[in-house]
Amino acid sequence: MTAEEVTNEEQNNIPMEGEDITQKKDGGVLKLVKQEGTGTELPMTGDKVFVHYVGTLLDGTPFDSSRERGEKFSFELGKGQVIKAWDLGVATMKVGEISQLICKPEYAYGTAGSPPKIPPNATLVFQVELFEFRGEDITEGEDGGIIRRIITKGEGYTKPNEGAAVEVCLEGSCEGKVFDKRELKFELGDGESLGLPSGVEKALMAMEQGEESLFIIKPKYGYGNTGNSKYNIPGEATLQYKLKLTTFEKAKESWEMNSAEKLEQSIIVKEKGTQYFKEGKYRQASVQYKRIVSWLENESSLPEGEEQKAQALQLAAHLNLAMCFLKLQEPSSTFDNCDKALELDDTNEKALFRRGEALFAMKEFDRARADFQRVIQLYPSNKAAKSQVALCQKQIKEQHEKDKRLYANMFQKFAERDAKEEADKGMENGGGMEVEENGGQE
């Protein structure tokens, strides 16, 4: 029997009924609800959906079933990870709904089919049950801090990068109340000066031009544990932002710039970072200084005589980053940038001093004292370093006293335990003799 004959015979076995859910209304996907779902919310593009399904040919011949495997199937909706019919059909379903999808070849496996179980030009029938859907986690570590729900898919494949010029319509809300509604033009990295939480900029860097999405932003990427008094946002509040990225222009990447451009841009962003620092916007300042490092740290084709200028810019960037992270109370990042600065200038006063401050904050008082003593050795007039050495010595002494008390208590407990064990041993030996004597009497 030919594939065409199989198709004709199949079509006589299962009635072709249901609602046409295709955009073209070409009958390519017919949906018939077998069990109504709950609620009103439908999954959106990019959502991770969890389903059970049974797939058959039109004559009822089964070819695949997640139920037989005993494991739900999951995929990201609208990303082309499944056949077109599924992307269309599941997008119309509610949680708990069971629907039958009759899918013509052009919305399934086409003229090729999927041998050996699905013949060419096969119309397929799926019974699908939707159990759950959840938004897309766009954070680097997938910690659930920023969840995206796509309302309208964007165009193209490129996304804004750090420093990109963006135009955006935004609406921020908290506990159902809108607190911020604006149309803005700004460079990514400048958001804090506009009252935007860091999560908004991270969200924009995941969007395509023309995209409109809803983002759920947890406190870590929102206004943290302090909240925002201007907008009357309490600490530890979860925010919701509706963002539409109208247009953007990417900032030049390192590989797109020649050496002269990198030096020119580094001077510009250094001034920008310094202005942010003066305003107390340490996170924004750090973003600018990081750009200098990314542009210059591996640059090997500098014009003659420009190496010294590039090194001075890198050194300043690392020193300023160290200061930003000290202000942000991130001592490990301070330490790392001081180390980088000392690779460029191993006797740099600020790098040694700030590394000492970082080590002190990390409670590594011996190492901190060594850095401060090195500062005094190289720069005897540095009074702050002398004060820090005294503080380190005080902390070291207190730690020694604490350890001494701890060990004294520990040794006392050991001595008491040993004495008890000896006493118990004596009791056991005495008891054994008495039993033996009693035994003899018997």
Contiguous low-pLDDT stretches (5 residues minimum) are 1-12, 431-442
Report the biggest beta sheet as strand number plus sense, adding barrel if it closes: 7 strands, antiparallel
What is the string of helix and strand elements? HEEEEHEHEEEEEEHEEHHHHHHH
Computed structural class: alpha+beta
Q: How does the overall form come out from the CA principal axes?
A: extended
Strand content: 15-25%
Rg estimate, integer Å? 34 Å
Write the layout of secondary structure elements.
Blueprint: H1 3-11, E1 19-20, E2 29-35, E3 48-57, E4 62-65, H2 66-69, E5 73-76, H3 84-90, E6 98-103, E7 124-134, E8 136-137, E9 146-152, E10 165-174, E11 177-187, H4 198-204, E12 212-217, E13 239-249, H5 259-278, H6 282-296, H7 307-327, H8 331-344, H9 349-361, H10 365-378, H11 383-441
Antiparallel strand pairs: 1-2, 2-6, 3-4, 3-5, 3-7, 6-7, 8-9, 9-12, 10-11, 10-13, 12-13
Helix pairs in contact: 5-6, 5-7, 6-7, 7-8, 7-9, 8-9, 9-10, 10-11
Could you characterize what this model shows?
With 442 residues, this protein is an alpha+beta fold. The protein contains 11 helices and 13 strands. It has helices at 3-11, 66-69, 84-90, 198-204, 259-278, 282-296, 307-327, 331-344, 349-361, 365-378, 383-441, and strands at residues 19-20, 29-35, 48-57, 62-65, 73-76, 98-103, 124-134, 136-137, 146-152, 165-174, 177-187, 212-217, 239-249. Helix 7 (307-327) packs parallel to helix 9 (349-361).
